[in-house]
Write a structure and sequence with these properties.
The chain is 53% helix and 7% strand. It is α+β, with helices and mostly antiparallel strands and 447 residues long. It has two domains: 6-265 and 410-444, Orthogonal Bundle (2-methylcitrate dehydratase PrpD), CATH 1.10.4100; 271-392, 2-Layer Sandwich (60s Ribosomal Protein L30, Chain: A). The model has no long low-confidence stretch (mean pLDDT 97).
Length: 447
């Protein structure tokens, strides 16, 4: 009996997915996923790195196919995918999936957007492309982790396959073409964890989007890719994981969509800090504590969180977002961890520097054993000679729609007029009333 061709099975499910398969809850979720990504992307517009990214791609020129958000200009589809993939990940505020250890929206949305604008696809195909991108990212990321994440940034490496699925679905690829685009994008995959805390982390996301978009250009001109890029004996899963479980790709494939398993970020920092932040905020709010009452905070969490975020670092906005002691200090002092807490005047605040000395981060065995299914943090705050303890299994990531709309407006208003932000929000939340992508593109070009 022939071995199961994982990539073929995935391609079959993707090619067979129809808009009529999506229930109202899923369509609403897609719209809020788009809104959240757009908020992160528009809000990053004043970031120096993002300004440079936009200028680079505007100067490169080329055919005017797809919009660079914030650039008020169209560029080649593959370059729009690369640019928007980087920009949308710049604030570290985009959605996440816990078991896959990834940012699925950072790849699925800009990839589908670039392709859909390029061919003026239907809105339905745009939505399907996003669903397909989430499906591949979450299924493949879950199958390869947690060992994959030791060296490889899932958003970048698995993102190449996610982007390929998003673009291929927008373009209406058959099973055969879907398998081929995954085959080419899979061999273009990259993205190292070593770059975390630097601007190069954005390149991981952008390059993944580019890989998917560029693979479609190759496929449309007759190039071929490996048949089972994911499951073959010398393929993607074997190369990128030490303990792959391919059943995560095929279980309930075609029956259960994965997009609903992605969580929205409530805090503007690395996701590995969020359970601890939630624990601190829960204690100080429920127990009505003030920062001056606190003598110490001990945070037990999983090994990956300790390795990536366990040290205090306030040298830059990016490094601070990857510092649990810094983020915990902000939660204690300001009762929140928003973008404001990473501004220059806060980063070097003497109160931050003094208070962080009270915080201890250590690896907890139980938390490590449960990762990545859980992203547990055990928080103990000692205040007024009393110990207050909270265990947070997973970050709080299912906020009401009203929170997401407020998040979008606050991010968008950092860069564009409130009236335009309202127009974008209303357009996205009524997306299904549009027929073709050019109706949305007209609005996006105003940013």
């Amino acid at each position: 009996m022939d071995e199961l061709n994982i990539t073929y099975e995935l391609s079959k499910a993707l090619a067979g997915l129809k808009y009529s398969d999506l229930d109202n809850e899923t369509i609403t979720d897609v719209k809020y996923k788009i809104l959240d990504w757009l908020g992160c992307t528009i809000g990053a517009g004043q970031n120096k790195t993002v300004v440079n990214i936009i200028e680079i791609y505007k100067e490169m020129g080329g055919r005017e196919q797809s919009t660079v958000i914030g650039g008020k200009k169209r560029v080649q589809m593959v370059n729009a995918a690369f640019a928007n993939g980087m920009i949308g990940h710049a604030l570290e505020y985009d959605d996440v999936n816990k078991p896959a250890i990834t940012h699925p929206g950072a790849i699925a949305v800009p990839s589908a957007l670039a392709a859909a604008e390029c061919i003026n696809a239907s809105i339905e195909d745009f939505i399907l492309g996003i669903v397909a991108g989430y499906e591949v990212m979450i299924r493949v990321g879950t199958a390869l982790n947690p060992s994959h994440y030791k060296y490889w940034h899932t958003t970048g490496a698995c993102g190449s396959l996610s982007a390929a699925a998003a673009v291929g679905k927008v373009k209406g690829y058959s099973i055969n073409k879907m398998e081929k685009i995954l085959g080419i994008a899979g061999t273009m995959a990259s993205g190292l964890v070593a770059v975390f805390g630097t601007d190069a982390k954005l390149v991981n996301a952008g390059h993944a989007c580019y890989a998917g978009a560029m693979a479609s250009e190759f496929i449309d001109r007759g190039l071929t890719g490996a048949r089972d890029i994911i499951g073959s004996k010398n393929g993607f899963a074997k190369a990128f994981s030490q303990e792959e479980d391919l059943s995560s790709i095929t279980d309930e494939l075609g029956e259960k969509l994965m997009i609903g398993t992605a969580f929205y970020k409530i805090h503007a920092s690395c996701g590995h800090t969020h359970s601890a932040i939630d624990g601190i905020l829960s204690i100080i709010n429920e127990e009505k504590l003030n920062a001056k009452d606190v003598q110490s905070i001990k945070i037990g969490t999983y090994k990956t969180a300790v390795e990536l975020t366990g040290e205090f670092n306030n040298s830059s906005e990016q490094t601070a977002k990857f510092s649990l002691p810094y983020c915990a200090t902000c939660a204690l002092l300001y009762g929140q961890v928003t973008l404001a807490e990473f501004s220059g005047n806060i980063l070097n605040n003497m109160e931050i520097l003094e208070t962080q000395k009270q915080i201890e981060v250590y690896e907890d065995d139980e938390c490590s054993k449960l990762y990545p299914t859980k992203r547990m943090a055990k928080v103990k705050i000692t205040a007024n000679k009393m110990d207050y303890v909270r265990t947070i299994p997973l970050p709080f990531g299912k906020p009401p729609h009203s929170f997401l709309e407020k998040k979008f407006m606050s991010l968008a208003a950092m860069t564009i007029p409130v009236k335009l932000a309202e127009e974008i929000k209303d357009a996205v939340l009524n997306l299904e009333k549009m027929k073709k992508m050019d109706e949305l593109s007209i609005i996006l070009k105003k940013i």
